[in-house]
Amino acid sequence: MARNPARPLSPHLTIWKWGPHMLVSILHRATGSALAIAGGVLFIWWLTALAGGEASYAHFIDLMTSDRTGKLNLIPAIVLIGLTWSFFQHMCSGIRHLLLDTGAGYELKLNKMGSIATIVISVTLTILVWFAIFARGI
Amino acid sequence: MGTGTGIGRVRGLGSAKHGSHHWWQQRLTAASNLLLLVWLVVSLLRLPLYDYRALVLWLSSPWASVPLILATISVFYHLRLGLQVVIEDYQHDFSRVIALVLLNFYAIAGAALAIFAILKVAFSGAVA
Fold first, then answer.
1. Quick check: B114 and A33 CB within 8 A?
2. Which class is domain B21-124?
3. By the CB < 8 Å criterion, does A135 face chain B?
4. pLDDT, tens digit, for every residue of A26-41?
């Protein structure tokens, strides 16, 4: 892995003008990592709390939603909404990757549109899901 | 080795014939994730999530517990493949080996915990 510092590096992040396709590319990795770690741990936590019986599940729900005064627990709410968006972003971006794997969608304009679409769709789905959740009170 | 022509030195050192395995498994689990997690999100939105009994009743049906177990396997395999690439991109010395071992521990232990919890609820839930 020893690199001769005298040799030039290929052009990297700093030299390119940022576009939506670059943003979506790095977001795919960032949201994937967040889902894999925070999402995975939360998923295990949810299921083991459920397996622990009624009291342990009630404790988990209290922690994730609101304290005894009925006030919303802000940090879990932010984490859950963030993970919801991460999920939809990773899903849309993943579908885009599957399409790109077929060799389609590399025309500059279409490629840019596709990457913007993943963000628009993921934000819209996140808003819809959380609107539905808050509308009925989890 | 090391004395022949250029082509002679590299002949036989090429593809181990599983070069596309990781790539293909990642696509395959991406597809199964898509199906299983869309099902899960729709199911969760239709359930009263705060209601312990409703969730236990839901998981006591094989039509819920089995897809949830499949989703667990698919998701944890997919996240193991994905994080492996992330680690390989950013960790270059011995820390890479440690990170990869920890990743495997996390993926396998996490999936085992989740599956055990699902089965426990599924098998004991109907009685409660």
1. no
2. mainly alpha
3. no
4. 999 999 999 999 999 9
